[in-house]
């Protein structure tokens, strides 16, 4: 009997960690609205992350009407807002000099869960391209400087170790991963997507992942399916009103429909580029059909949304 129970548990774990079409773990996104913040650690702001006001941020998310919140671990600078001793050790950096010792993503996820909301994280599909030493330490080319490198299977397996370390450190506090820079012209493939998906789900087998294939364009490259490791569509969009015209239902080819776009005039800007009516129409096209829309906003070093953006999000997310 004990062996039978263990076999059932193993099968359940394998099912929960599945990726691809019709993954029920992505159903929580259906008909939901979220906000996302490209607040990226840099050499200039790295020391401020220890003072990040998680409670204040979570209170704002609750007030905004968002169903979930997303945050970047880091991007291309080589600095990150969560601990990862593996990265620093492999690169020969002092522990805590590049990866914050305070696990801010885990804190945010746990506090969001406590109020019934979900948490998404962002991570590039390779180390920081502004740090050639870090790229090389994980098997990527040192050049071209300040540009995305080619992604090989061998390098992807090494970067997956760093992804797995973050996943384990955050555990079930993370509900979704959004990977950037995972472009086919860089060599990204189904096989690499599955390597990364397995690593991202190590800490939480029920988490879901998506891989960004580039900016959508309704005329030439609409929001669509990409790789076998996807659970939901990355859906990066510069034009939410145009691109929201492509949704037909909750899933596209079996993948949860999702759009990620920005409130300001560019990613991470604190202004508001459209009047409420544009956003209201995009949301009206997406949410009732079971799609999800995530809107990027700007936050200050303490984690607070800028007042004008906060007020617009509250208005357009109001039922």
Strand order of the largest sheet: 5-4-3-2-1-9-8
- The average pLDDT score comes to 91
Beta content comes to 5-15%
Count the beta strands. 9
CATH topology: TIM Barrel
What is the helix tally? Answer: 10
The biggest sheet, with number of strands, parallel, antiparallel or mixed sense and barrel status, is: 7 strands, parallel
The level 1 CATH classification is Alpha Beta
Radius of gyration, taken over Cα atoms and rounded to an integer in Å: 19 Å
Q: What count of domains describes the coordinates?
A: 1
Question: What's the helix-strand series?
Answer: HEHEHHEHHEHEHEEEHEH
Give a structural overview.
The chain has 319 residues and is of the alpha/beta class. It has a single domain, classed as Glycosidases (TIM Barrel), CATH 3.20.20.80. Helix content is 33%, strand content 13%. The protein has ten helices and nine strands. The strands form two sheets. A seven-stranded parallel β-sheet has the order 5-4-3-2-1-9-8. Helix 9 links the parallel strand 8 and strand 9. Helix 9 packs across helix 10. The longest helix has 18 residues. The protein is globular, with a radius of gyration of 19 Å. The N and C termini lie far apart (50 Å).
């Amino acid at each position: 009997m004990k062996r039978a129970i263990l076999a059932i548990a193993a099968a359940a774990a394998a099912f929960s960690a599945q990726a691809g079409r019709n993954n029920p773990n992505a159903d929580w996104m259906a008909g939901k609205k979220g906000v996302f913040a490209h607040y990226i650690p840099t050499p200039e702001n790295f020391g401020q992350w220890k003072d990040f006001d998680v409670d204040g941020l979570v209170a704002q998310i609750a007030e905004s009407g968002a169903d979930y919140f997303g945050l970047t671990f880091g991007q291309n600078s080589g600095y990150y807002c969560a601990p990862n001793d593996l990265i620093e050790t492999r690169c020969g950096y002092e522990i805590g000099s590049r990866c914050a010792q305070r696990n801010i993503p885990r804190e945010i996820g746990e506090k969001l869960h406590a109020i019934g909301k979900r948490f998404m994280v962002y991570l590039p599909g390779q180390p920081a391209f502004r740090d050639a030493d870090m790229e090389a330490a994980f098997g990527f080319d040192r050049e071209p400087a300040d540009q995305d490198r080619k992604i090989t299977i061998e390098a992807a397996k090494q970067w997956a170790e760093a992804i797995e370390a973050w996943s384990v450190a955050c555990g079930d506090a993370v509900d979704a991963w959004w990977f950037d820079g995972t472009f086919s012209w860089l060599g990204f493939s189904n096989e690499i997507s599955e390597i990364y998906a397995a690593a991202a789900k190590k800490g939480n087998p029920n988490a879901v992942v998506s891989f960004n294939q580039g900016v959508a364009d309704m005329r030439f490259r609409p929001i669509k399916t990409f790789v076998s490791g996807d659970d939901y569509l990355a859906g990066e969009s510069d034009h939410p009103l145009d691109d929201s015209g492509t949704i037909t239902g909750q899933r596209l080819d079996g993948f949860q429909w999702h759009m990620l776009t920005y409130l300001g005039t560019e990613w991470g800007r604190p202004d508001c580029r459209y009047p409420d009516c544009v956003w209201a129409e995009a949301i009206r096209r997406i949410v009732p059909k079971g799609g999800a829309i995530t809107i990027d906003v700007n936050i200050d070093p303490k984690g607070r949304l800028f007042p004008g953006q906060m007020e617009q999000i509250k208005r357009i997310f109001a039922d």
